[in-house]
Design brief:
Number of strands: 0
Distance between the termini: 52 Å
Largest sheet: none
Mean pLDDT: 92
Shape: rod-shaped
């Protein structure tokens, strides 16, 4: 198996951080949305 480089970023761990950060932002936004309209 080849050592493939990920698209856009030089390392896969950067993709993992991006995904974790995006999911955290979504959780916070949905929490604020729920508190605002409850």
């Amino acid at each position: 198996m080849q050592n493939e480089k990920p698209p856009l970023f030089p390392a896969w761990w950067m993709w993992y951080l991006l995904v974790i950060g995006w999911l955290t932002v979504q959780i916070v936004l949905f929490y604020l949305f729920t508190k605002t309209f409850s």
